[in-house]
């Protein structure tokens, strides 16, 4: 005798779906301005729900971060990578990639928090890190093979530089845009091979 099919899961209530979307939109707005450590109480209040609803629907902060990090940061990181990979000149590709990532970190606290996150059990954050590492590997290898990048510069070097920059952005007074751009230019100029005299460092002249 054949077994009866398992009963279908009941459809989710419209109010539950609406609450989830309200929480997602509130989280994106809060994380965008204040970073991923924004108190859940503030997000719940902005969404018009109880804090417990966030735990019920998303399991807590990490589940909420995982639900919104792609829209909040991932899409912009992918755009930056795509622009760099389409750039024909190896130096301009790498310099533009570094510049655009640093610009994202300057204006988006959540991007810095994602960079500094130690929650390796998060598939969403791990995916962001793995895609960034693959892009960095390819751009660095291409620039090094073209002779426009110092031979000893590696993807881990770029990651450590990003972490140092991110910590400074989160823990020290925010520099002016002009100072931040100047420091980016200094960093990029330091990546050139010895004896190289660049005509530009991937940044507009001030």
Q: Do you know the CATH architecture? A: Orthogonal Bundle
Helical residue percent band: 55-70%
Quaternary status: single chain
Distance between the first and last residues' Cα = 80 Å
Whole-number tally of structural domains: 1
CATH homologous superfamily title:
Tetracycline Repressor, domain 2
Structural class: mainly alpha
Radius of gyration: 21 Å
Query: What is the CATH topology classification name?
Result: Tetracycline Repressor, domain 2
**Gross geometry:** elongated
The helix/strand series, from N terminus to C terminus, equals HHHHHHHHH
The total of helices stands at: 9
**Which CATH C-level class is it?**
Mainly Alpha
As a percent range, the share of strand residues is under 5%
Low-confidence stretches: 200-206
Can you put this structure into words, describing what you see?
69% of the residues lie in helices and 0% in strands. With 206 residues, the chain is mostly helical. The protein has a single domain (14-189), classed as Tetracycline Repressor, domain 2, CATH 1.10.357.10.
């Amino acid at each position: 005798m054949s077994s009866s099919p398992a009963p279908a899961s009941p459809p989710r209530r419209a109010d539950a779906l609406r609450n989830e979307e309200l929480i997602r939109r509130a989280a994106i707005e809060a994380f965008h301005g204040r970073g991923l450590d924004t108190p859940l109480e503030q997000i719940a209040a902005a969404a018009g729900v109880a804090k417990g609803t966030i735990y019920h629907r998303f399991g807590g902060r990490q589940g909420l971060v995982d639900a919104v990090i792609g829209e909040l940061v991932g899409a912009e990181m992918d755009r930056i990578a795509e622009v760099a990979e389409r750039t024909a000149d190896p130096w301009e590709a790498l310099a533009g990639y570094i510049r655009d990532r640093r610009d994202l970190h300057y204006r988006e606290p959540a991007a810095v928090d994602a960079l500094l996150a130690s929650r390796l059990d998060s598939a969403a954050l791990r995916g962001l890190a793995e895609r960034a590492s693959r892009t960095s590997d390819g751009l660095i290898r291409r620039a090094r093979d073209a002779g426009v990048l110092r031979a000893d510069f590696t993807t881990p070097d770029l990651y450590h530089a990003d972490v140092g920059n991110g910590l400074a952005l989160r823990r020290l007074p925010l520099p002016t845009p002009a100072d931040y751009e100047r420091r980016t230019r200094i960093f990029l100029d330091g990546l050139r091979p010895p004896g190289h005299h660049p005509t530009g460092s991937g940044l507009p002249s001030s």
